[in-house]
Design goal:
The protein contains 12 helices and 19 strands. The chain is α/β, with parallel strands linked by helices and 532 residues long. The chain has an 11-stranded mixed sheet, with helices on both faces. A 4-stranded antiparallel sheet has the order 16-17-18-19, covered by helices on one side. Strands 4-15 form a two-stranded parallel sheet. A hairpin with a 5-residue loop joins strand 18 and strand 19. Helix 5 packs parallel to helix 7. The chain is globular, with a radius of gyration of 22 Å.
Length: 532
């Protein structure tokens, strides 16, 4: 059965094997090569996936349709595939691991290789290239009349809130409250200095806000974000209304500088490693030194806030009817220097960011799996049975999925590229065998079709400069480019890629070029980068 068709749903009382992505072997294989890439699987002790699906159906049925859930969507920033404990990392992430063990993991969940496009996909249910978004940008990203996810849920009776990083428009007039959020707090721009809360030098440096008003606060960005979330949950006046809470942490994006209390939780000789055997064909990865401790502390700090959010839901009596998603916006960054970045200086520790996407190939900004395939878990107590699915899934799927759960029915065609994942999450239906997932960015385009993946790269002139073809069932680590040997399959997938990308740029912000020109002019001004 192709990778995209398997659904592995396990009973709630089974032990979950937390060794990451161990390759399974096909019966009769004579070379022992990896046949699939799967994370967090547990042994099904004589229980078929059908049984778990039946249990999920019973849980959903009850006395009728389940009450519309609260939805908490937690997105870390640059969290790598192997940066979490349930994928074998030595970085302790007990709160995320607990949600993973009791939830459903999407082991083939795809995003953009950089952050702004992923966030546009989440907010719209459409591929980001439909809006002409091909990379990181600070200007308004979505047309003002876009029916966004918070707007859809708000029309269905939900309260909506965002605490964390927006990065879909770095001016207050481009901020979250203009796109459907009742309450918003955090960075309008991208990653910020953890203590000064400044974005990069330039016109959008002052970015920290509450409800569209730029503010100045003291405190560490991760703790402040967690505080805002916990206080919002506890302080809600209408406790009977469902809510959509979007928590895009800036952690573990650079610049990283953690409080001493979090560094003290790690020994001086701490090293980031993966469990033995987690990296096929080689020894476990190992990162040590100052940045290893800083990075681990940063991930732990974010994990702690995840635990606080769950505790706040429990204290408010909302946990049982809250669906929680925890994921990342793109693959982990492994080459960028923590210091000497274009942020206002704050004595940041020096060294490369030691994120890990192993055993996947590549990193943030890459079109290989390590750049675009990220951890993703979905947890809803007593509704979703613990397990995993390796059906193809994309960040654009959340809007149709959450809209379906909330009862939102659009009155016009919103041109969603995403599909409703709920039947797959519950095990009540098999994935579409013909499902395509697409990614278009500045570097090129990617198309996934079942186990097959086509990468089409751009040259300097914007034309196709080369293609790569991989079979992720046989070659999950993308070691062998099959394009030269399989020209017919390449041509067929290129035709499908051309078809799926045909609607790109059909919803570009009208004043995009004017905003880009203004930003370049402001950024070039004498006050953009003060002298040290």
């Amino acid at each position: 059965m192709p990778t995209s068709e398997r659904l592995n749903v396990k009973p709630g009382n089974c032990e979950r094997d937390l060794v990451p992505m161990q390759p399974t072997r096909t019966a009769g294989s004579d070379d022992g090569s990896a046949r699939s890439l799967r994370a967090g699987t547990c042994r099904v002790r004589g229980v078929l996936a059908f049984s778990a699906a039946l249990l999920a159906s019973v849980a959903l049925a009850g006395a009728g349709t389940p009450k519309r859930p609260n939805i908490v969507f937690i997105m870390c920033d640059d969290l790598g595939w192997a940066d979490v404990g349930f994928h074998g990392s030595s970085i302790p992430t007990p709160n995320i691991d607990r949600l993973a063990k009791a939830g459903v993991e999407l082991t083939r969940y795809y995003v953009s290789p950089v952050c702004t496009p992923t966030r546009a996909g989440l907010m719209s249910g459409r591929y980001w290239s439909r809006f002409g978004i091909l990379g990181v940008q600070a200007i308004r990203s979505l047309p003002v009349d876009t029916v966004t996810l918070p707007r859809a849920l708000k029309s269905a009776g939900y309260d909506t809130a965002l605490m964390g990083k927006w990065h879909l428009g770095s001016k207050p007039e481009w901020g979250p409250q203009h796109y459907g959020f009742d309450h918003s707090y955090g960075s309008l721009g991208g990653g910020v200095g953890p203590y000064d809360h400044f974005y990069k030098f330039g016109p959008y440096q002052h970015t920290w806000h509450r409800n569209g008003e730029l503010i100045t606060e003291k405190g560490h960005v991760t703790a402040l974000t967690g505080d805002e979330v916990v206080n919002w949950i506890a302080g809600r006046k209408d406790r009977d209304r469902p809510f959509f809470l979007y928590v895009p942490f800036t952690a573990p994006h650079l610049p990283i500088k953690e409080p001493q209390e979090w560094l003290d939780k790690l020994p001086a000789d701490f090293a980031i490693t993966m469990r033995a055997g987690a990296v096929p064909g080689g020894p476990p990865s190992r990162f040590s030194g100052t940045m290893a401790r800083q990075y681990a502390a940063c991930v732990m700090h974010a994990d702690h806030q995840v635990g606080r959010i769950v505790a706040a839901l429990e204290a408010a009596g909302k946990r049982d009817n809250t669906l929680i998603v925890v994921t990342s916006d793109n693959g982990g960054s492994t080459l960028n220097e923590n210091a000497n970045q274009p942020y206002p200086p704050d004595n940041y520790p020096e060294g490369r960011i030691p994120s890990s996407n192993l055993p996947l190939r590549g990193r943030k900004e890459d079109l290989y799996e390590g750049g675009v395939r990220v951890p993703c878990i979905v947890n809803w107590p007593r509704v979703l049975e613990p397990g995993s699915t390796d059906a193809l899934a994309s960040v654009v799927d959340w809007m149709p999925t959450f809209s379906g759960l909330a009862g939102f029915k659009p009155d016009k065609d919103l041109k969603w590229d995403g599909v409703d994942l709920w039947p797959r999450l519950t095990g009540r239906s098999q994935p579409q065998k013909s499902r395509l997932v697409y990614c278009g960015v500045r570097e090129g385009q990617v198309l996934w079709e079942g186990d097959w993946k086509l990468i089409s790269r751009y040259g300097k002139d914007g034309q196709t400069a080369g293609v790569e073809l991989f079979n992720l069932e046989d070659d999950p680590y993308e070691t062998t480019n099959l394009a030269p040997k399989m020209p017919d399959r390449v041509r067929a997938m290129q035709l499908r890629l051309a078809e799926v990308s045909r609607r790109d740029n059909d919803a570009v912000v009208p004043d995009r070029e004017a905003m880009l020109r203004e930003g370049r002019q402001l950024d070039a001004g004498p006050a953009a980068r003060p002298k040290p």
